[in-house]
Amino acid sequence: MPRVTLKLFALLGARLPPGSVANATEVVTAEGTCVADILSGFGLTDRECHLVLLNGNFVPVDERASTRVTEGDAVAVWPPIGGG
Amino acid sequence: MQRALLILPEKCTGCRQCEMACSFEKDRSFNPSKSRIRVFDIHSQARFIPYTCTQCSQAWCLHACPVDAIRVDLSLGTKVVHDSLCVGCKVCTIACPFGTINYNADSGKVAKCDLCGGDPACAKACPTGAITYVDAEQTGYGKMRHWAVKTDTQTAAQV
Amino acid sequence: MHHVIIGAGPAGVTAAETLRREAPADNVTLICGEPGPPYSRMAIPYALAGKIGEDGTRLRQRDGHFESLGIAVRHDRVTAIDAAAHRLTLAEGGSLAYDRLLIATGSSPARPSIPGLDLPGVHACWTLEDMRKVTAQLRPGTRVLLLGAGFVSCIILQSLVQRGAVVTVSCGSSGRMVRSMMDETAGGLIMAWCRAKGVTVLTGGRPSAITSAASGLLTTLDSGLTAESDLIIVGTGVKTNTGFLAGSGIELDEGILVDGWLQSSLPDIYAAGDVAQGLNLCTGAREVHAIQPTAVEHGRVAALNMAGKPTPFGGSLSMNTLDTLGLISCSFGLWMGKEGGEQVRLLDAGRFRYLRLELFDGRLVGANTVGMTNEIGVIRGLIQTRIRLGGWLERLKRDPSRLAEAYVACAQGLAAE
Amino acid sequence: MSWTGKFLRIDLSAGTVKTEALNRDWARQYLGQRGLATKYFTEEVDPKVEPLAPENKMIFTTGPLTGTAASTGGRYSVVTKGPLTGCIACSNSGGFFGNELKNAGWDMIIVEGRSPKPVYLSIENETVEIRDASAYWGKTVWETENGLKADHQDPLLRVASIGAAGEKGVLYACIVNDLHRAAGRSGVGAVMGSKNLKAVAVRGTRGVRVKDPDRFMAVATEQKKVLADNAVTGQGLPKFGTQVLMNVINELGALPTRNFREVQFEGAHKISAEAMHEPRPTDGKPNLATNGACFGCTIACGRISRMDPGHFSITSRPQYSEPSGGVEYEAAWAMGSDCGVDDLEACTFANFMCNEHGIDPISFGSTLAAAMELYETGVLTKEMTGGVELKFGSAEALVKMAELTGRGEGFGLELGQGSRRFCAKYGHPELSMTVKSQEFPAYDPRGIQGMGLTYATSNRGACHLRSYTVASEVLGIPFKTDPLSTDGKAALVKAFQDATAAFDASGICIFTTFAWSLENLAPQLDAACEGEWTPEVLLEVGERIWTLERQFNLAAGMTAKDDTLPKRLLKDAAKTGPAKGLTSGLDKMLPEYYQLRGWTPDGVPTPETLSRLAL
């Protein structure tokens, strides 16, 4: 049962369980879980999840369902954002 | 039903699109200094406050006018300056305890909000919903109304 | 019930309209001492300047306004009042009975005792008729001497200049301009401004004599200085029109003393406007405030009381605004200060900007402004509502020009911090 | 219309004020603001001029959309030769000053010479005066701005001024308007100080007119809707500001930390946008009080922060517990992550100091980071720093040095010379994270490869605002590219540089480009300005501006050798994160970039290129 850190930032932070620290929560997943499974588990749609990073690496929308997570992975998600 | 500007300062970001829209409506140029609505930047309290005439029932400006140049538009409840009659004496500007009727030295006349004849440009231009044009009864812009009442001399004397 | 109103200025007209609205079944008679429809003295300078015609001075623009409201307008003058009999004596003969009476006869120019004041070419400029006389003699280049540099003179000054007159103002013994509404600094700025605009301002004392010379009227001041002009306009102050009340038993001081309901010392007789000496909001004393907003407010409140709707008068705020050749100045309330209060001043003489605030007990009580027009009315708001400035007090002491911000913040409940 | 058609020429040496008509041909070629002012500047000023000499000029300039209802149309720029870089400097600012200048009837102010004594420029529509400012010399920006408003008895006066930093020649001194908006980079404030010009105070009531008012209002309204409907400009930026990037860039492993020694900061979250929203344990209030807009801006990304009154930096100075401009991402990074400081309140206070005294927080933070590295390696000692322990992570050091640098006092004045000069002085030029002497912003070129090329080729020294390829490489705007790859980055950088130059010339804020392209800008310009403005025309204007800036820098003595990065980024690989093992691939991108630009392999525009751009 891999344990994965899920980080939801900006407006998505509201979806985290209460009491989450540093915009992160731990998710215990089944073997073979994909990034897309984790996101849908939190009721997040592809459209909301504009930027998904797995350990800092960008996961394009069409690869989220095929990208598996393993123990200790960090999935970080943002809605569309900008800065400068 | 009469409608009124509902102003929610907590939604205002201080962008002044309302001021530009107002001056454009009246003068076809972008000139915040000529706007009849003004955004106050209360910097010390991190608050922006759009501010204009509430079309108060006391109508201080109207009563102060010596030449009948300010009249009530009965359909909208607005107090409207008639430029052809205004002599620019400025008595209304000191009589209005809200400071929402102002002298324009370029035109030699006073200017105030007239709700653009029922389609206020400021409300249309506001990007955040801080200024909306709604049925007067539901405004809860009671705050300004309340203020208007407080400014009544009778009330003031009893405070 | 018959309500009679003497005087068709702003106080009288507002009272008549208010009575009509509040007591629809009653009779209302408005006695108008001058010919023509009721007009506004405030507008005379603009008519004199040619900015508006005589019609533009009318207090109500619509023809038949009073008739349509069922207000009887009677052109006549009242010569005496029999309070016991509830009856007025009229100049044109006859008398008029009233149930309730409002005296709103206003004021008229005070004539100083100067030899030569009766000479042709010496006028007041108070009524429309006065204005017609002045206008008839006014040409571009006409030399006009204004006797007195008070509000009335100063407001005419601009009109005369706009008509192309060559204007001289005599400030009288004080040597100051608009001293009843502006402090010495503000008056000095106005004087400097007028001089810079080509107006001659004389501070050489009081006029002692006017004589007729071949080249015009020669005015001698008590300093010995002389001024020559084609026309003299007397604007040395006003007095309340109470002469016809002699023997009526009504209590008079500077004007008709009225109580907190604008009633005089006599039953069923009220007074309003320039002639009334009512409560001053700022001082708590009874004073004459000869200004349009007070006249209107008096008229409204007196009428409510006459109509049987007891309405206390909260007191008037003395305030005024003046435009001298484009320089706008204002005064409010206790601009001269209040004992134990604090004063904040900002002066930029080079740019003719001045702001003086008088603060007392954490509130604004008075102000003088020169060169400021934006949101000027908030000064009235701050004084009248007696807003506690809270944290804004200190900010205003650092920068008094942030008045409007202070007012709006306080209005939004952001005063505390 | 839209240009007022006239500008002011102020000769401070002679004390004269002149009005001149705008060159309409140039306006058609260079649009306005960054473009048009650069044209004027390069026509009038010797590229070899000493930046702080009276012969240097500075131009305050608006764009054609400044002062119009186009969203964000409130910008102005300051164009001069930068004392930090020796390059053309163009610093862009928002707030309300730009609109006021335009509303007073002026497209630009060209300031020349040096006043014999401190002065400020007072503009009230056509009334323009050079007035004595000796009472304000030495005063802070905040004192100056508030003081001038009181002096003028006009709360609506708009003021752009410098603090002691600009007066004393801090080389990254900026010009601050509206208390916390700044023409921030390249040391334009030091140029102002060298001219003894304390402030420009403006009040304008003439109105700004556009060519086709009805069409303009229709397109401006339509484009405002585009911004409102876009998730970035409509939701993300208003709520979180630019600071939302802190966690993103950290996750990506491109958050330069402790003077670029590392690429991830363990304390990033504590100084992020999300942290600014969290109630503080001390007083229960969040750092962020509200968001605020610049003139005409329907995005409103500005942060207004209220400090914790109990924070050590302000316990004895309660005036700083009033709200003021909060940290933007670059500032939070430079003074936070790059210095290893994870104290949001300390960063906020340092940011207040930067605003109050007029210094660029990016250059300040980066220079401090370099000094901290020198301190940790023992080159600097406590005796040399005035007793302050310049340790990475020290909030006390940050707070102290921000104020000292802002005031141009003590060790702060040394820091005020910028990281290149500072590190060179102490014998370690390799520790200066700069290009053309200007400090980097907040993106590590090892983790975001396009930014390496952006920094190396920027005409005003290292800068993110000249081609923000982060938009594409990280945020997927307008399309996603791989931040770790150098492929296609030369073309990306060129396209961003040219488009950005056009936006900067228009009076519009670059942040609109999260939702807008030139396709959205062009119709607004076309309705506002004389001439025909299409995206194609604008792109060419942008390229022309870029090339003209390049020409100036080459004439000033820059060469292709200056288009490079510090050794640390070229040789030392990132140690953690996705970019682990990577260095910047600048050498792969630069030749391609030159070629795409129509420049020689030595980075010089060919005659054909110049002719194509009518230069």
From TrEMBL, chain B:
Example GO molecular function: metal ion binding
Keyword line: 4Fe-4S, Electron transport, Iron, Iron-sulfur, Metal-binding, Transport
Pfam families: Fer4, Fer4_11
InterPro entries associated with the record: 4Fe4S_Fe-S-bd, 4Fe4S_Fe_S_CS, RnfB_subfamily
PROSITE patterns documented for this protein: 4FE4S_FER_1, 4FE4S_FER_2
Protein name: (Fe-S)-binding protein
Limits of the 4Fe-4S ferredoxin-type domain: 3-33, 44-75, 77-106, 112-136
SUPFAM superfamilies from the UniProt entry: 4Fe-4S ferredoxins (SSF54862)
UniProtKB/TrEMBL annotation, chain C:
Presence of keyword Cytoplasm: no
Domain FAD/NAD(P)-binding: from-to ranges: 2-286
One GO MF term attached to the UniProt entry: oxidoreductase activity
Annotated coiled-coil segments of the chain: none
Keywords of the record: FAD, Flavoprotein
Cofactor needs: FAD
Keyword Flavoprotein: yes
PANTHER family assigned to the protein according to its UniProt record, in alphabetical order: NITRITE REDUCTASE [NAD(P)H], PYRIDINE NUCLEOTIDE-DISULFIDE OXIDOREDUCTASE DOMAIN-CONTAINING
Similarity annotation: Belongs to the FAD-dependent oxidoreductase family.
Annotated protein name in UniProt: Pyridine nucleotide-disulfide oxidoreductase
Organism from which the protein derives: Paramagnetospirillum marisnigri
Lineage of producing organism: Bacteria, Pseudomonadati, Pseudomonadota, Alphaproteobacteria, Rhodospirillales
Automatic annotation (TrEMBL), chain D:
Entry keyword Ligase: no
Cofactor names: [4Fe-4S] cluster; tungstopterin
Gene Ontology terms, MF aspect: 4 iron, 4 sulfur cluster binding; electron transfer activity; metal ion binding; oxidoreductase activity, acting on the aldehyde or oxo group of donors, iron-sulfur protein as acceptor
Domain Aldehyde ferredoxin oxidoreductase N-terminal: 3-206
Keyword flag Iron: yes
Domain of life: Bacteria
InterPro entries in UniProt: Ald_Fedxn_OxRdtase_dom2, Ald_Fedxn_OxRdtase_dom3, Ald_Fedxn_OxRdtase_N, Ald_Fedxn_OxRdtase_N_sf, OxRdtase_Ald_Fedxn_C, Tungsten_al_ferr_oxy-like_C, W-dependent_AOR
Keywords: 4Fe-4S, Iron, Iron-sulfur, Metal-binding, Oxidoreductase
Family per similarity comment: Belongs to the AOR/FOR family.
Name the UniProt record assigns to this protein: Aldehyde ferredoxin oxidoreductase
